[in-house]
Amino acid sequence: MAPFLDIHVPPEILQHIVRHLDPISLIALSQTSRVWRAFINPIHHDYAQRLLALELLPEHGIVPRFDERSQKLTPSWGSSEWESNKYACCGCMKLRTHMMFDNHAILRRLFRKPPPGSVEASNATTTDWEPLELSARWRHIQDRAAQAKEELEKCRVRVADWPREYAMLNPVPHPFARVPQYHDDINHEIEAHLVGTSRHKRRCVECQRRRGNWSRPNSHPGSKEAPAAKSRQLKFPSMWERHFPGLVERLPPESVPRIWRALRESTDGIQLSLYVLCCPSCDTWQEHSAFREWSLYQFGFGSPKRPKDPLLCNRCHLAAHQDPDLLAQELTMGALEMFRDDRDDTLHQLKFGWPLIHRDFNDSGNPNPPLAKFKAVGAEILSGLRWTSSTKQDIIIEDSDLPDLGRRFQRYREFIDHEVDSETRWRVLQSWFKLWFEDYDLYEKRYHWLNKQIAWLESDVKIVLNYVLKRDPYRI
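The line above is the sequence of F-box domain-containing protein; the predicted structure tokens follow.
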């Protein structure tokens, strides 16, 4: 008989009760007293099970769904649900923010959080604790792992044999016919049996670094002193919002013009991958913007570029040099360069449509201009504009010219909306020019807004430094 809870309960009954606990309750019970700890005697496997069960609780984030066929993640990376999402690392035995894991550790089939109803999610509801000696219990754990591996292999074979089975059941007239994707029942079978079965092997970026996974040359996109890991891909309206999030208050969504430049996947932002680097001085992982290497890991040819040592985060740079003015100057110069580039892009968008308006009214280089019979209106709108060359491919404007340019555009808009027929209007408003026509006022407002932000940053060199030290926006 064993004295627990001031009553005498046979050990067999207690063992039966404990075997029906979930992994979280098992460890919680073992930590209530020395007697319970000696009775349960938890091992590393039990703590790992508890950690993997904790990551599935709602307070530690969502269970995202990843469609392997369409490569679609629900919810998407930029949604607010990901802010509190945590994952278990069975190396350091901690629940860490998702930013401490690379994409493979989160999206690979065997490492993903298992959805409700799957085999792995069901296993997380009941512990596999047994009242055995450590060696005997470890053998049982290994036996169960071997059986689970056999079941997983059967499921993999089932998935691999699907095209052959489909071909046998649905013969095709020629050997090059396309085999369709998995049926939904096959996809559900994958989800139910395979997702999350190797979560105990998931490691955060810090554990990978300590294990020496990145000791080989070119094994990661960082440097020898500052290892780096590729992280989430997010959409940013501009580069300064990517490197200085929250520095200025954004324009309301209805005041943001669409982006129509080439090589853009969408009209509302740029897809950029985040990278996290480990500072060699403070040994903390931070988003790479904290290291003031703005040109690293940008899109384009020859990317990503590798950082050059020594590389220190903002706080370590300040501690090493003891010169706030030096850090403030570097940060302000970087922010101003991005804001000015954004302003130049907006100015380019403002100027984009005027050569096209000239082309539509005149027959130079255009054999059949749609607005040729309205040359008088064209002269009213275009006369007095300064062009960069005789070919009239671009106009010259200054800030003082914007009010006059706005009046010219309003006259052109009235003309297109009320003085031409629908077919001519359709011929004129095509492709990017249509976006320019619809969002011209927004481009002008954004240009003036960016001028104000640049003047604000130029007024005090320590604005960005105070923002970085107060908000600490890069620490993960």
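Note on the example: Strands lie at 2-4, 7-9, 65-67, 72-74, 86-89, 94-97, 228-236, 270-278, 285-287. The chain has two domains: 1-213, 232-476.
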